[in-house]
Amino acid sequence: MPARTPGGRWSAGPSHPGPSHPGAARPRGGRGRDRAGRLGRGTVWTVAVVVPLAFLVAFFAYPVAVMVGRGFVVDGQLDLSGFADVFSRPRTWRIIGQTLGQAGVATVVSVLLGVPGAYVLYRHRFAGRAAVRALVTVPFVLPTVVVGVAFRSLLVEGGPLGFLHLDGTFAAIVAALVFFNYAVVVRSVGGLWERLDPRAEQAARALGATPWRALRTVTLPALTPAIASAASLVFLFSATAFGTVLVLGGLQFGTIETEIWVQTTQFLDLRAAAVLSVVQLVVVAGALLVAGRARTRRERALQLADPGLVVRPLRLRRRRGEPRDDGLALVRGATALTALVVVLLALPLLHLVVRSLRVGDGWGLDHYVALSTASGGVTVSVWQAALTSLRTAVDATLLALVVGGLVALIVSRRPRRPAARRAVAGLDALFMLPLGVSAVTVGFGFLLAMHEPFGLDLDLRRSPLLVPVAQAVVAVPLVVRTVLPVLRAIDPRLREAAATLGAAPGRVLRTVDGALALRAVGLAVGFAFAASLGEFGATSFLARPDSPTLPVVIFRLIGRPGPESYGRALAASVLLAVLTATVVALCERLRRAGEGGEW
């Protein structure tokens, strides 16, 4: 029966107050369940925030603070005279200039070569495109020590490019940095270019613009956020490169990163190392600020594209009967340049394999056979070091996946309150700092801080978990940057619909966020595993003599005189490169075109 409402109107609802009415009585226990649900959700999100923050404070902020504090605290008092002392040295300004110069030139060259590569590999369709993408990505995840060894074998006297006399020069270091960071530009710019709405460029062409003018005035401005983000990341990675610069440049072309290592290990000058760590932190903070703003603009640009629009890759060959396109020369030029770069990327790796098979005046597998013996100043065999690296990388990857996954989950939320939005942005920035802070500072800080940490009667320096924890600190930002874009792209209405249908918060996370981010998680696991497998800066301080990792063994073999040690270092580098390349190949199989994170 219709019921009269308090305002005198008739409604078709029941005459008794139902649950949908404002004054309706809730079912017995309903308020208690709602309150318990809110408390449960609050507890879950609190734990999700506290666990990563505790990890960051205990294993990053605290060791770095102890390391820097040792340089600025003298006899229990703050002493900042180290800044004046360090900056009065001509060597310091030379090191800073070399760092900025190498990183700046490497960034410019990487962008100039990477943008055409992104166009060819993400806007065109050809046989073997997936294989070329994987090949381009391999250098980025290769350990920096392997990159240094590969270029050194290519440029030394007697090598294929020895006649150029580039060994130990500024140009060799820049070439190695471009080799390492080319994939960052290709993947970052290509990911946006692949999903860019082509109708704006087609409209410009229809109005009479030439292909080059349409590219310059329409497409490139739309790609500016991705290009700026990639450039800032390349600068960051180049400014903090350690193994590559140490192997190729030695002490003549050092950077802030290698100088911190020299001041710490050779001169035991912690005050100078602390000052340089602060200088590097300032440079890194600036690069991260630019990268963060560019990344935000990139995400906004991605939202401009129509999700339902199918952007078909262009063909490299013109069909019969089609009118000749004036832009074909532009396409051919980009294709030729990309093909040349791919060949140059493959050359150091191929030569590394060839040199590892060179035995005296002949050829053989002697260096690979010697990997099973402990000699050349190394207490374990290379195979034992490889197993240690694999076990350590597994532990570091699991830890990085848990911490980085929680950070990505929290940061992917879009709270309505401005204060909450600023807190989320701050959390995102905090967990990016390990990307740029010197791994040497982190490693040496572990040695100083893990003896009675926080005043506890513990000595964690001998713990086998110290190395994977240090590697996880470096890998967490990679996990966050890989998973976060996918989580942010999820329509919030999907979560709301699942919750409306009665799904608990845990089930919503599992069936919505987890299902859609599954492939990105697989890619994050691969990147974290590869990064942990090749980490050298912090591990060089923390690895015990009886259980060194593979990059540490390679560096020790390089420093030993004699062709046998060098040959074993080459063979061990090939082994490490094969392991990382296998991981990358598996990651590419988990990633469909256009999916995944930034890299």
UniProtKB/TrEMBL annotation:
It is found in: Cell inner membrane; Cell membrane. Keywords: Cell inner membrane, Cell membrane, Membrane, Transmembrane, Transmembrane helix, Transport. It is a multi-pass membrane protein. Pfam families: BPD_transp_1. SUPFAM superfamilies: MetI-like. InterPro entries: MetI-like, MetI-like_sf. Residues 96-291, 386-587 form the ABC transmembrane type-1 domain. The chain crosses the membrane at residues 43-65, 100-122, 134-155, 161-185, 222-250, 270-291, 327-350, 393-411, 423-449, 469-487, 516-534, 566-587. Residues 1-36 are annotated as: Disordered. GO terms for cellular component: plasma membrane. GO terms for biological process: transmembrane transport. Belongs to the binding-protein-dependent transport system permease family. PANTHER family: INNER MEMBRANE ABC TRANSPORTER PERMEASE PROTEIN YDCV. This is ABC transporter permease. It comes from Cellulomonas persica.
